[in-house]
Please model this.
Amino acid sequence: MEYISTRGGGTPLNFEQVTLAGLAPDGGLYVPRAWPCFSEAEIAAMRGLSYVELAVRVMTPFVEGSLTEDELRDLCMRAYGRFAHAAVTPLTQFDEQQWLLELFHGPTLAFKDVALQLLGRLFEHFLKKSHDHLTIVGATSGDTGSAAIDAVAGRERVDIFMLHPKGRVSDVQRRQMTTVLAPNVYNIAIDGSFDDAQAMVKRMFVDQDMTGRFRISAVNSINWARLMAQVVYYFAAALQLGGPERKVAFSVPTGNFGDVFAGYVAAQMGLPIEQLIVATNVNDILHRALSSGDYSTGTVTPTAAPSMDIQVSSNFERLLFDCGGRDGQALAEQMRGFEASKAMMLTNAQREGASALFTSARADANDMGRAMAWAADKCGEIIDPHTAIGLHAARHAEIDKSVPIVTLATAHPSKFPDAVERATGQRPALPGRVGDLFQREERMSELPGDYDAIAAFVAEHATPSA
Model:
């Protein structure tokens, strides 16, 4: 399997190279040269597989030439063996049409664990072969940081530097990062927004002074391997609800567009998906882009769903590339214009390509609260604010009643106890496996939202590449 940049530059890479690289040197994101595709019979034959065996079946085409099937199976067994539920990503029923896909049974109680527990092991596997050292630089609006840190803490040949916006993540989210005291973990609280942090991370990937000294990689969903692992649970849910003979729709609370783009990949691989609903909060750049073609940033508004408080959705570039005819040079020019002006209009081809599968919805604080209250009062389910935004969109979607709609439950409600209690009157408790979180010592560095300061900190503490 070969991978190419969405901006048309550089040399195609294999899976091992693209996993360790993260972002392409031209600023683009890596995608497969062509989408692998399963027949209906091949998908039907996946019914009844364990999550590990399903993951191996779905991901094998993407890792061809870099991992054997047995190596991939071993990595998946170790990654998903840490989950608290035997099904890894179980389904729960709300009513006759609405379903919940629980993605929060990993060690840090968020959907990011599904991919990052595997990614951490992929890093370790590949670095042992090359005897090199990796410097992971990431930005988080909440859950990516803790999941990535848990996945690589204490691992050999890896340092991780995780940036988060100071005061803009929940107490649980922050503590899940800052209480990991492994010597290879560096937490950085910056003055600024998630978009500021993400922009600095992207800049570091094209800073030749940094890339010349350190082998820098990513754990954000700009890393293809992370997104690949998320494709699996779309297959898992659809197969349980009658796929491939029966179509299924998915509602995805969306910030950086990686989770819902994984659904798009599943559809390209042959999984019959009726619709992908992009659910945003009031930071609604994706809703505006998909409904009117206007991809223009605004000011980030802090909300009770902080992982969605984003104005620049990095993975949207992958969709624009695929729907725009895979013209890397044209997209590079389009993205340069966006990076300069923070505004652009989607082309007709991009809009038409997206509308074939995607719709979108926007939820404000009241919509979010009502969705949490409905789930608690009518279904006995306590959900977090991000999941509630997805549920709001799902319940208002104009989709035939015969089509199941699966809302992706992206985080355990105990990560956002104040917001949940306001909406439902119930304060969710942390699961026992993380119950002592607020008694643990914290460690982090506070830095200005300035690229030079961040780069200097990384350079001071990172291990140079071999």
Observations:
- DSSP finds 19 helices and 15 strands in the chain.
- The first strand starts at residue 3 and ends at 5.
- Residues 91-109+224-424 form a domain with the Rossmann fold fold (CATH 3.40.50.1100).
